[in-house]
């Protein structure tokens, strides 16, 4: 019974992004603290503001926004209205204005007209921003996939940011994007009205990861579980976190994907492998989670490729490690000759055979052409890129017993 209750508690934590990112609330340098200060000061001092949250998918941008808005709503009840838009759904200006009008009507218990034109909805948005400002209420616009709103004529962004220039309006615009140069996509008239504040979401440091693991995995004393079981469970977790073998597992995981989202998925799998009889976590649970968490499809595709195809993949990896941004089949063959001369191997293939192997890798989607570059060139001269990570290539080489050179 205690084990099932503990599992339910841990899974609930791992499935709640706001709980996961609440681990960094106490840090004054965290993005949570910076974003909360930005919005809270805008509310308290009654001025308009805008900011961009930038970082890779899974880094917790939306989770931090939700956490900040939840806390601010508790601190400032009835003074915040939140309007959420997604560039995947509302990148069209007419659709976006209509959705803003719908949410504003819902938020303020007004009658929404489905027949209103885009200009009517745009004017309604401006009027509501002015009325909310006069009533000392702030409207927080959260624009997910912000870079998609920057496409086209950018009427929504212009009308929104332009309305914020007036003294009577009171609003905050939070753009969320995976594209680090999203602000550079803005037109000059829009960029001039943007505050240019940016919060970068980077992979957490090892200290932050350790704090996050303890925050998620430790059972609280007030959970209603037997105190003896809680002490034993937390002690086991502490021993695992201090184990050097666990550090190696964590390193291999973060080498592939260092986002918080990937770490949470890994922990969820580890918790699911817990021994129901003992009710305690073990290092084997995390080893099994690592095996499940590894990206298998590309590695499996390397099992039956030829030695020549492995040569080509290794050459491409060597070129990328040399920071050669653009390379083609000719560059790969030049690197292949360098390996052949250095290791004095007996493997020597004709140009036509190498080209067929190269084309086979393209068909298997282990490599691909660089988009929009050299489309009119022949295959030998078109720029290409690897679609597998260095670690996946290493695992593929390691599993192939007939590799002719030192791995």
UniProtKB/TrEMBL annotation:
<dbReference type="GO" id="GO:0003688">
    <property type="term" value="F:DNA replication origin binding"/>
</dbReference>
<keyword id="KW-0539">Nucleus</keyword>
<dbReference type="GO" id="GO:0005524">
    <property type="term" value="F:ATP binding"/>
</dbReference>
<comment type="function">
    <text>Component of the origin recognition complex (ORC) that binds origins of replication. DNA-binding is ATP-dependent. The specific DNA sequences that define origins of replication have not been identified yet. ORC is required to assemble the pre-replication complex necessary to initiate DNA replication.</text>
</comment>
<keyword id="KW-0235">DNA replication</keyword>
<comment type="similarity">
    <text>Belongs to the ORC4 family.</text>
</comment>
<dbReference type="InterPro" id="IPR027417">
    <property type="entry name" value="P-loop_NTPase"/>
</dbReference>
<dbReference type="GO" id="GO:0006270">
    <property type="term" value="P:DNA replication initiation"/>
</dbReference>
<keyword id="KW-0238">DNA-binding</keyword>
<keyword id="KW-0067">ATP-binding</keyword>
<dbReference type="InterPro" id="IPR003959">
    <property type="entry name" value="ATPase_AAA_core"/>
</dbReference>
<dbReference type="GO" id="GO:0005664">
    <property type="term" value="C:nuclear origin of replication recognition complex"/>
</dbReference>
<dbReference type="Pfam" id="PF00004">
    <property type="entry name" value="AAA"/>
</dbReference>
<dbReference type="InterPro" id="IPR032705">
    <property type="entry name" value="ORC4_C"/>
</dbReference>
<dbReference type="Pfam" id="PF14629">
    <property type="entry name" value="ORC4_C"/>
</dbReference>
<dbReference type="GO" id="GO:0016887">
    <property type="term" value="F:ATP hydrolysis activity"/>
</dbReference>
<dbReference type="InterPro" id="IPR016527">
    <property type="entry name" value="ORC4"/>
</dbReference>
<protein>
    <recommendedName>
        <fullName>Origin of replication complex subunit 4</fullName>
    </recommendedName>
</protein>
<keyword id="KW-0547">Nucleotide-binding</keyword>
<feature type="domain" description="ATPase AAA-type core">
    <location>
        <begin position="52"/>
        <end position="197"/>
    </location>
</feature>
<feature type="domain" description="Origin recognition complex subunit 4 C-terminal">
    <location>
        <begin position="213"/>
        <end position="393"/>
    </location>
</feature>
């Amino acid at each position: 019974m205690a084990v099932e209750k503990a599992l339910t508690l841990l899974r609930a934590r791992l499935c709640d992004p706001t709980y996961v990112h609440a681990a960094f609330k106490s840090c004054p340098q965290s993005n949570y603290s910076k974003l909360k200060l930005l919005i809270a000061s805008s509310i308290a001092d009654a001025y308009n503001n805008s900011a961009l949250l930038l970082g890779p998918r899974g880094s917790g941008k939306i989770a931090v926004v939700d956490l900040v808005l939840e806390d601010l709503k508790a601190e400032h009840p009835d003074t915040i209205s939140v309007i959420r838009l997604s560039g995947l759904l509302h990148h069209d200006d007419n659709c976006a204005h209509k959705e803003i009008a719908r949410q504003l009507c819902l938020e303020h218990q007004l009658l929404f007209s489905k027949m209103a034109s885009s200009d009517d909805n745009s004017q309604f948005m401006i009027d509501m921003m002015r009325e909310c400002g006069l009533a000392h209420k702030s409207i927080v616009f959260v624009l997910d996939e912000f870079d998609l709103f920057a496409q086209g004529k950018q009427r929504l962004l212009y009308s929104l940011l332009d309305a914020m220039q007036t003294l009577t309006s009171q609003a905050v615009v939070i753009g969320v994007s995976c594209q680090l140069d999203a602000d550079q996509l803005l037109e000059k008239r829009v960029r001039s009205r943007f505050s240019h504040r940016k919060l970068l979401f980077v992979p957490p440091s090892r200290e932050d990861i350790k704090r996050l693991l303890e925050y998620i995995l430790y059972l609280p004393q007030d959970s209603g579980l037997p105190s003896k079981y809680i002490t034993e469970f937390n002690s086991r977790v502490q021993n695992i976190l201090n184990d050097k073998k666990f550090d190696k597992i964590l390193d291999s995981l973060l080498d592939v994907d260092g986002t918080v989202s990937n770490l949470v998925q890994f922990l969820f799998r580890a918790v699911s492998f817990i021994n129901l009889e003992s009710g305690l976590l073990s290092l084997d649970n995390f080893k099994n989670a690592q095996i499940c968490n590894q990206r298998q499809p590309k590695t499996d595709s390397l099992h039956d490729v030829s030695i020549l195809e492995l040569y080509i993949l290794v050459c491409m990896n060597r070129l990328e490690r040399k920071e050669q941004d653009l390379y083609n089949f000719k560059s790969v063959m030049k690197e292949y000759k360098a390996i052949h001369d250095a290791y004095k191997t007996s493997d020597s293939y004709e140009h036509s055979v190498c080209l067929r192997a190269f084309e086979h890798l393209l068909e298997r989607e282990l490599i691909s052409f660089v988009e929009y570059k050299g489309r009119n060139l022949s295959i030998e001269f078109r720029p290409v890129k690897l679609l597998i990570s260095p670690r996946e290539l290493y695992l593929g080489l390691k599993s192939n017993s007939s590799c002719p050179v030192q791995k």
